[in-house]
Design brief:
Chain A: It comes from Pseudonocardia asaccharolytica DSM 44247 = NBRC 16224. Chain A: This is Iron-sulfur cluster-binding protein. Chain A: One of its GO terms (biological process) is lactate metabolic process. The complex is a heterodimer of chains A (490) and B (242). With 490 residues, chain A is of the alpha/beta class. Chain A has 22 helices and twelve strands. In chain A, strand 5 and strand 6 form a beta hairpin. In chain A, helix 3 packs across helix 12, helix 9 crosses helix 10 and helix 16 packs parallel to helix 18. Chain B is globular, with a radius of gyration of 17 Å. Chain B is an alpha/beta fold and 242 residues long. The longest helix of chain B is centred in the C-terminal third of the chain and has 18 residues. Chain B folds into two domains: 119 residues, Rossmann fold (3-Layer(aba) Sandwich), CATH 3.40.50; 107 residues, Rossmann fold, CATH 3.40.50. A four-stranded parallel β-sheet of chain B has the order 2-1-3-4, with helices on both faces. In chain B, strands 6-5-7-8 form a four-stranded parallel β-sheet, sandwiched between helices. Chain B contains 14 helices and eight strands. The chains are: A alpha/beta (490), B alpha/beta (242).
Chain lengths: 490, 242
């Protein structure tokens, strides 16, 4: 008998971006019908994939690094409460303020209140998946505050009225011609002669952003890591926009998922090697900013850390499923995933798309709200091989599928067609006589495909197969019949 | 050596020639093949679709059938992958630790065909003759669950009369994925389309692989396209002689 204490809870409905409006197969169908999107994604994922493979191959200790990363994460999760409390104490001790948010609603309320207290109506933002997860920009907008994204790709997404479709490269679904159109349409003061030449696009964004960096008084960031032993927070990035946001404004508010804590600086060393090679395919990322509390006369003089749960403790409660919390958001699994490469990120309906999204999102929201995601994988295993912290994503997907099936079974006593089929197949296959009889019965299929040996059309649900693929005509004799006939006397 | 053949339910029911080829091949190499007739299915489809409760009796049955044998072979990376990496897990999750230990023991004696030939029997030239233009698709579970690496290619390179053509993006999934091919038919088909494009680009007459399931998928697509490329299981090529 267990007593329900009200915790842990899942990420609440109606706030943030963890739930799509359609199941994955339907959303994927829409994405697959867009040839430009397919080309953009194919080109981009291949480029990053090749870069990653090249820099990973340079390290002969890559497997040891991965194992070290996995071990540190597992050990950290096992005592997450202690590390978080350490982090909290250290941040307070160095002049910062720590807030605990049990979910997206609470985190948004805290940040909105903090921004309101400063009296500003515009904040600059460092690229952050966590604030996308909780829908912070929308919450601030509702409170009359403009949240300006400053990462180039996030800016493209924001100006395009769009959502990120990739963890690292949020505008991966756009090509430069589309970006030019968005800038011309949405960017105030842009040069009308703008071309789709990358340097020109970057310079336009630079001019637009520079003005906002210089006038910003409040910045909002996420965090890649929080180092418990000193209370240091870390952001790694490529463009330097993050460095601007983290150093220029008077007030800095950081929203960090509570799984991002690492116990010590020595632990950070492992991840700072794993992350850039896995994400951008670089040996080292151009900017690594680490700040600790408040330093008088240098950088923001007000620092707030918001520690976000939003379903993470619920994931932690599952001793196997919690492996998804080891993710360092490198997005290597997206880039190698054959499903992601073809559907893009929006089909997943969550800010966390791809293989890691398919195991993380349902755990944050509760599986009933994202039941189609664990099935959005052919279990090819490429994600596991690419993961810098060795998250066994295929096994987690299978585990979540089992959890979903069990939940559905508990929810209704009327079995679905799939449940009946699986039960019947299981019954048939536990006994060789029944299996042999089923093989014989399948031979009625031999009325089909007589000319070519292949069957081209079958009724639903098998039409899902035959819509694009033929099926072989059942043979006249099964293997076991052949064996009994030829070798049965042995 | 006495080798028990786990033919797999798919080969038994739809591709009996694959099972016959394994028997012919291993006997030619001087081994004794036995077929435990009580065998059915490894339960992978159930496990991967989330029906672990239904899979448990299948796992137990498989363990009981194959427990008496020292060396077990299956012409499928995927089914061997399930035996090796899932059976003990299913038993353990159902709270049957004894079955998990027995399943693990059977798993360690179960080999995919190319693993058996190269690692256990120490052969990489099986004396086959196959005068065709062939390209090889390394199936995901052979590659990433079992790590068969270059073993099937080593075997294929020693086949007389054969031209082996390199498949571009060979390690990309064909989109089968068991019930994935039905539940996410559109995405599966998009993956298949790219795989077929690469297969056709090689100009091969024959696409081979170590898994009947992936070949059923790619072959079903190639047949629909009237591409003229046919699919043949690795075992059938290795069993072929002059």
């Amino acid at each position: 008998m267990t007593t329900f204490l009200g915790l842990p809870t899942h990420a609440p409905r109606g706030v943030g971006h963890l739930r799509g409006d359609r199941p994955f197969p339907a959303a994927a169908r829409t994405a697959l019908a867009q040839p430009q999107l397919r080309r953009n994604l194919g080109h981009a994922t291949r480029t990053i994939r090749d870069k990653r493979a090249a820099v990973v191959a340079e390290r002969d200790d890559w497997e040891e690094l991965r194992r070290a990363g996995a071990a540190i994460k597992a050990a950290t999760m096992a005592r997450l409460d202690e590390h978080l409390e350490r982090l909290e104490r250290e941040v307070w001790a160095r002049g910062g303020t720590v807030h605990w948010a049990c979910d997206a609603t609470e985190a948004n309320a805290i940040v909105t209140r903090l921004v309101a207290a400063t009296g500003v109506h515009e904040v600059v933002k460092v690229k952050s998946m966590t604030t996308q997860e909780i829908g912070l920009n929308e919450a601030l907008e509702a409170a009359g505050v403009v949240a300006q994204e400053t990462d180039l790709a996030e800016l493209i997404v924001q100006l395009g009225g769009d959502l990120p479709s990739h963890i690292l490269v949020p505008a991966i679904h756009r090509n430069r011609a589309e970006i030019r159109e968005i800038f011309l349409r949405e960017m105030p003061g842009v040069d009308p002669a703008l071309t789709d030449e990358p340097r020109g696009l970057a310079m336009a964004a630079r001019a637009f952003l520079r003005e906002r960096f210089l006038r910003a008084r409040v910045a909002i960031s996420g965090a890649n890591f929080g180092v418990a032993e000193t209370g240091g927070l870390a952001v790694v990035e490529s463009e330097g926009n993050g460095r601007m946001c983290l150093t220029l404004p008077e007030t800095l508010i950081t929203v960090m998922g509570l799984e991002k804590v690492v116990p010590t600086w020595r632990d950070l060393e492992v991840f700072l090697q794993l992350l850039p090679r896995s994400s951008t395919g670089e040996r080292m990322n151009p900017y690594t900013s680490i700040w600790t509390g408040v330093t008088p006369g240098d950088g923001p003089q007000q620092f707030h850390l918001v520690l976000l749960d939003n379903g993470r403790t619920a994931a932690l409660a599952d001793e196997i499923g919690r492996e998804a919390l080891h993710c360092i958001r490198c997005s290597a699994c997206l880039n190698v995933c054959p499903v992601y490469e073809r559907t893009g990120g929006h089909a997943y309906g969550s800010v966390y798309p791809g293989p890691i999204g398919a195991v993380l999102t349902p755990q944050l929201t509760g599986i009933e709200d994202n039941a189609s995601l664990p099935y959005a994988s052919s279990l090819c295993g490429a994600c596991f091989d690419a993961c810098p912290v060795r998250i066994d994503i295929p096994s987690l997907l299978v585990r979540l599928r089992a959890a979903h099936v069990e939940e559905r079974r508990a929810a209704s006593r009327i079995p679905t067609l799939e449940q009946l089929t699986m039960a019947a197949a299981g019954w048939t296959m536990t006994e060789p006589g029944r299996f042999a009889a089923a093989e014989k019965a399948s031979r009625v299929g031999r009325v089909l495909g007589r000319r070519t040996g292949m069957i081209g059309a079958l009724p639903p649900p098998l039409s899902a197969w035959t819509a694009s693929r033929d099926l072989p005509r059942p043979p006249a004799e099964s293997f076991r019949e052949w064996w009994a006939r030829e070798r049965g006397n042995r | 050596m006495r080798i028990a053949l786990f033919v797999t339910c798919l080969a038994d029911a739809l591709y009996p020639d694959v099972g016959k080829a394994v028997v012919r091949l291993l006997e030619r190499l001087g081994h004794e093949v036995v077929f435990p007739e009580a065998q059915t299915c490894c339960g992978q489809m159930h496990i991967n679709t989330g029906y672990q409760r239904e899979a448990l009796p299948l796992v137990r049955h498989h363990v009981e059938v194959f427990e008496p044998f020292e060396t077990i072979v299956a012409p499928s990376g995927s089914c061997v992958g399930s035996v090796r990496h899932q059976h003990a897990m299913v038993a353990r999750r159902a709270g049957d630790e004894r079955l998990a230990i027995r399943a693990q023991a059977v798993a360690e004696r179960t080999h995919e065909l190319s693993q058996l030939l190269v690692d256990v029997l120490g052969v990489d030239d099986v004396g086959a003759y196959y005068p065709h233009r062939v390209t090889y698709h390394p199936t995901c579970h052979s590659l990433r669950m079992l790590r068969v690496d270059e073993k099937p290619l080593r075997l294929l390179r020693n086949v007389r009369g054969m031209t082996l053509l390199e498949l571009p993006d060979a390690d990309q999934c064909c989109g089968f994925g068991g019930t994935f091919a039905m539940k996410n038919a559109d995405t599966s088909t998009a993956m298949l389309a790219d795989k077929m494009r690469h297969v056709v680009s090689t100009g091969a007459e024959v696409l081979t692989a170590g898994d009947s399931s992936c070949l059923m998928h790619i072959g079903g697509g190639l047949s629909r396209l009237r591409s003229g490329t046919r699919t043949v299981h690795l075992a059938e090529i290795l069993a072929a002689t002059e």
